[in-house]
């Protein structure tokens, strides 16, 4: 196989992107320039280069739109619940069930993780925090323990698997050339191993420091109880969780996967949103619906707008997607580079697993966790194919590393929502997370090597 100038340009841009992520620099401009250069050199025309840039971003946007839409609808539903007070009714009783620091740690973590699976971690933080933190404090759990539990369960376990919204496995899998269902199946054991070790070790550290007197539960002033709720709010507080429980049961019973499962979740969420608006606001429902939908799309677009130009470049590395941008016969540049590397350096499960984890952690240093997933998927395909390993497992391992790193457990700029709600210093939280998370990722790497 002969490598062309386009291949070497692609490799140079990939290395610049990894360096930029390591240095916490923006990489959008590098990816845009790389896309233009590839189009110019491959097609031999600067006009074609401009067309390539637009087509690549359009292709990436189409691939991501269902994720953007589902997140926008879930955020809009949350905003509607907040407006009518249904979120308060749903969350408040749970805080009263906390018995002691142990129950509070695992309880607030489990609730945050469950909500994060449907709403994503940041909006879930804003829902869980104000209503459950006082109860956890009364149960004797220090604020840093509350922050760690919410962080590890939400930004770690829930987001790294992303089994409900399926944004992460779709992004990674599409670049790796594997299905969403294969990505999810490969992710399950890795999520369990990393999650159990990270949360368990974090809890052990917390109890150790509490016994030594290094941590104490802060006294929380009595919060003002809200007492006035409409009938619609009371019904919605029960209807929303029951509806999504029914969705989960239905998707398992009917074996719905990927886009089918996402479509069902989004459809049910939108119906609940409309019903709540009509029931609470009646003839003014259209105004409120417009308002919450705008908020939902603003949140979703804000997350994915910087991902699209990065994905546009890295999709050129995949042999399945590159022809959609550059035309029939276009190579998958990173895929070809991986095959060429395998002829020089023998590749096996151990080195490719270590490479994918390190690149994943570096890719997450920008604090989003998602911007590097396309690169991770493309790299998994490029290295995994010549190495003869299970590409889905390799891609899932890289996804785990990227999201646990940048999704918000290891870098201070990724835990700002948790820090803001709890008042904990971001750096102290990430320092506390470092050993549990890295130990969990190390264990997941070992498991992945055996599974590959």
Taking all Cα atoms into account, the compactness measure Rg is: 23 Å
- Indicate the overall shape: globular
Structural class by helix and strand composition:
mainly alpha
Overall tally of structural domains: 1
Uncertain ranges: none
Provide an overview of this structure.
- The protein is mainly alpha-helical and 452 residues long.
- It has one domain (5-216, 227-451).
- It is 79% helix and 0% strand.
- It is built from 20 helices and no strands.
- Helix 4 crosses helix 6 (121-138), helix 7 packs antiparallel against helix 18 and helix 17 runs antiparallel to helix 18.
- The longest helix has 39 residues, at 46-84.
- The radius of gyration is 23 Å and the shape is globular.
- The two termini are 26 Å apart.
- The model has no long low-confidence stretch (mean pLDDT 87).
Spell out the key features of this protein.
single chain; 452 residues; mainly alpha; 20 helices; membrane; transmembrane helix; transmembrane; Transporter
């Amino acid at each position: 196989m002969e490598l062309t100038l386009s291949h070497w340009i692609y490799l140079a841009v990939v290395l610049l992107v990894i360096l930029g992520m390591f240095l916490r620099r923006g990489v959008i401009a590098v990816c845009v320039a790389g896309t233009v250069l590839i189009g110019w050199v491959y097609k031999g025309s600067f006009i074609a280069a401009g067309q390539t840039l637009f087509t690549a971003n359009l292709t990436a946007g189409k691939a991501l739109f269902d994720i953007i839409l589902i997140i926008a609808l879930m955020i809009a539903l949350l905003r509607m619940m907040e407006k009518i007070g249904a979120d308060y009714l749903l969350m408040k009783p749970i805080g009263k069930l906390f018995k002691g620091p142990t129950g509070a740690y695992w309880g607030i973590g489990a609730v945050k993780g469950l909500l994060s699976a449907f709403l994503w971690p940041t909006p879930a933080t804003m829902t869980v925090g104000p209503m459950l933190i006082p109860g956890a404090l009364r149960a004797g759990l220090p604020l840093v323990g509350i922050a760690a539990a919410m962080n590890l369960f939400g930004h770690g376990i829930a987001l790294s698997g992303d089994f409900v919204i399926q944004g992460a496995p779709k992004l990674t899998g599409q670049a790796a050339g594997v299905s969403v269902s294969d990505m999810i199946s490969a992710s399950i054991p890795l999520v369990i191993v990393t999650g159990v070790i990270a949360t368990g070790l974090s809890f052990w550290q917390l109890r150790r420091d509490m016994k030594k007197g290094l941590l104490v539960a802060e006294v929380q002033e009595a919060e003002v109880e809200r007492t006035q709720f409409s009938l619609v709010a009371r019904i919605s507080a029960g209807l929303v969780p029951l509806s999504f429980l029914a969705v989960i049961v239905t998707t398992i019973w009917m074996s719905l996967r990927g886009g089918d499962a996402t479509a069902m979740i989004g459809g049910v969420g939108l119906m609940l949103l409309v019903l709540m608006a009509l029931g609470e606001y009646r003839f003014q429902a259209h105004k409120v619906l417009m308002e919450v939908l705008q908020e939902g799309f603003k949140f979703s677009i804000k997350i994915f707008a910087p991902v699209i130009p990065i994905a546009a470049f890295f999709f050129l590395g995949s042999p399945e997607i590159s022809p959609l941008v550059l035309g029939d016969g276009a190579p998958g540049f990173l895929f070809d580079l991986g095959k060429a590397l395998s002829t020089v350096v023998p590749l096996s499960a151990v080195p490719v697993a270590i490479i994918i984890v390190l690149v994943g952690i570096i890719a997450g240093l920008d604090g989003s966790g998602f911007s590097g997933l396309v690169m991770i998927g493309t790299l998994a395909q490029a290295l995994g194919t010549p190495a003869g390993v299970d590409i889905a497992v390799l891609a899932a391992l890289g996804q785990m590393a990227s999201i646990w790193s940048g999704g918000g457990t290891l870098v201070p700029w990724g835990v700002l929502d948790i820090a803001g709600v709890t008042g904990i210093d971001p750096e102290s939280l990430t320092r506390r997370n470092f050993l549990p998370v890295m130990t969990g990722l190390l264990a997941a790497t070992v498991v992945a090597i055996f599974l590959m």
